[in-house]
Amino acid sequence: MRQRPSARATERELVVVAAVLEAGSEKAAAHQLGLSHSTVKHHLANARAKAGVETTAQLVWILGPRLPEPEGGPPTHE
Fold first, then answer.
1. Which of 4, 27, 45, 63 is most buried as measured by Cβ atoms within 10 A of its Cβ?
2. What are the residue boundaries of the structural domains of the chain, listed by start?
3. What is the DSSP letter of 71?
4. Is residue 70 pLDDT above 90, yes or no?
């Protein structure tokens, strides 16, 4: 049985993708996570290859349901 592309990403790759989405750039995500920019790029490249996509936007669309909530959780409406 073949795994769905979203099931192949590691937890660390999911955290990196979520951080890039939240921070708005690879460099900002690297700073937020305490990683080098090249490490973030490496995790994104691995996740894109596993998902069979070419862009980070496509990766976010595929992995969206598995991405962890940003730090602090979802916004509250008061």
1. 63
2. 5-64
3. T
4. no
